[in-house]
């Protein structure tokens, strides 16, 4: 194991030959962190000048440098008697097989691939230095001792066999690197294609919202006219109607109400999804706003013999968009009435929850499955539960509610189980 072969790293100087100030500083800090003494030179000529009077324990040299590259520096250093036994490690990207041949020719001892990991680099340096110590004073033509991965090995292979092994290992590394490069290129291509698709989808979504807004806006006026005229007929302002005429005109009026609700929801969705939703904040009483809306819903609930119970805590005024908040409460309250059976109860509460004001509406309806709850805030979602009075739904209400609450930087909570009713709560910041 490595602990059996210890070296005093603070006694060893490493010469770094690197022309990039950033990479030189990075390598210097890494080595000094591991207790080595470090000297930095900017190129091969400067390094040769330094080693004339100084003998480092190890040299780490970049290959591509001005003045003199790493190969030439290694060749000249190895030709000097007092320098030939100093291990030289070359920095390479393993991008060109010619690097290995040049390194063998110039007498380099080891490679470090860029980018390198600290653990791997330090382990490699320790192996080189320990192997150097093991070979001191030993000369053998039939074998050599090396230190690798924490263990001492005795190699008896001849030089050609070692070179063959070296090249086969290097060839495999190049192959793996090439495969990784290929996969990386494919990934980058797919990423570019995905980005392009996203841009196209955004454009299509903008066009959809634009045409949806135009269509909904153009439909709303004629629908309102039809609905108004049908109400004049129902109220007999234009003269008496027969029973069949009243029946048909009532059907027209009901259908217009449903269509107008859908058109208004479509307009809201197009505005919200296009990013044109503008909130007009005012400071006001949430309690007062809810009480005003409940006057309307009390009349609607009585038609199904539903009782509405309220419990309001005293909370300070907060900032909100009154029109949009009415829209949120109307959607939640109308759903509670819509899905509640005859003679049931609805409970509306307002209280302070930490730094948030919380409005909750609890009904005694059929409740919702987990599957319904997971998709209830999506566009055009029809849930399993059916309205108890044959009421219609656009499937957009809760999606709009969620988006408006998000725009208020609030949250919405749902607590529901099949057969146990549902509680919808929305929370707004107390500010």
Question: What is the number of independent domains?
Answer: 3
Q: What is the helix content?
A: 40-55%
The ordered string of helix (H) and strand (E) elements is: EHEHEHEHEHEEHHEHEEHEEHHEE
CATH class of the largest domain: Alpha Beta
- The fold-level CATH name of the largest domain is Heat Shock Protein 90
Find the structural class using helix and strand composition.
alpha/beta
**What separation lies between the terminal Cα atoms?**
65 Å
Q: What about the largest sheet?
A: 5 strands, parallel
Summarize the structure.
This protein is α/β, with parallel strands linked by helices.
Question: What does the model show?
Answer:
With 431 residues, the chain is α/β, with parallel strands linked by helices. The chain has three domains: 2-138, Response regulator (Rossmann fold, 3-Layer(aba) Sandwich); 181-273, Orthogonal Bundle (Helix Hairpins); 282-429, 2-Layer Sandwich (Heat Shock Protein 90), CATH 3.30.565.10. 50% of the residues lie in helices and 18% in strands. The protein has eleven helices and 14 strands. The strands form four sheets. A five-stranded parallel sheet has the order 2-1-3-4-5, with helices on both faces. Strand 1 (13-17), helix 1 (21-33) and strand 2 form a beta-alpha-beta unit. Helix 2 (44-51) runs parallel beside helix 3 (70-78), helix 7 (243-273) runs parallel beside helix 11 (397-407) and helix 9 (322-338) runs antiparallel to helix 11. The longest helix has 76 residues, at 159-234. The mean pLDDT is 81.
